[in-house]
Write a structure and sequence with these properties.
This protein is mostly helical. Helices cover 72% and strands 0% of the residues. The model has no long low-confidence stretch (mean pLDDT 86).
Length: 193
């Protein structure tokens, strides 16, 4: 049995480099993923992911928030599906939205991570069931990227989250819903222009 890594240890690990570049983020991701594989899902969720979600996703340095989005992506493979749906996906949605996250780099990384997590959910679970509120949040963040002032964020949404959201909505039978479907939300958003 491995000793319990304290929040201070995890905080120290992710803050060894105050403003990590891409290579340093990848190295940190590999280290924490290896630790998570050794700890198993229960301890990963409690001891590593909990710390990342509570401190790093809202850190004042955008480089640390980018790293947090990347860590959400890599650590999600070591977590149970319900934890990913209930904890990771909502945080990535918040980090993807231009009203709650100012840094373009963070929004782009969060969208890439969100797409990865959604595709993994769809690939690894024969029946993924999402709540209506989660589907609405996914739909809203996709539509919000149409209004984002940075075209690269819209491109990232199209590239990473459009297809998984369509698959999720189709599996839930609400893709073509006149009130709550993705298509009606997109048409409604575009009709503003």
């Amino acid at each position: 049995i491995l000793p319990r890594p304290s929040p201070k240890l995890i905080g120290t690990l992710v803050s060894l480099i105050p403003r990590p570049n891409y290579d340093e983020q990848e190295e940190m991701s590999a280290i924490l993923c290896a630790l998570a594989a050794s700890l198993g899902p229960d301890r990963t969720e409690r001891e590593i992911l909990g710390e990342i979600l509570s401190t790093q996703c809202t850190h004042r340095f955008k480089e640390r928030r980018v790293q947090a989005a990347l860590l959400c992506r890599t650590l999600s493979s070591q977590c149970r599906l319900h934890t990913v749906i209930e904890s990771v996906v909502p945080v990535l949605i918040r980090m993807s939205h231009h009203e709650t996250e100012i840094a373009v780099e963070v929004r782009e990384e969060a969208l890439e991570s969100l797409g990865f997590v959604l595709r993994s959910m769809l690939r690894n679970q024969s029946t993924v069931s999402c709540s209506k509120s989660l589907l609405k949040s996914l739909r809203d963040v996709l539509v919000a990227t149409f209004e984002d002032f940075e075209p690269s964020v819209s491109d990232a949404a199209y590239k990473h989250i459009l297809r998984p959201i369509v698959q999720l909505e189709d599996s839930e039978g609400c893709l073509y819903d006149n009130k709550n479907g993705l298509l009606s939300a997109v048409v409604s958003s575009l009709s503003k222009y």
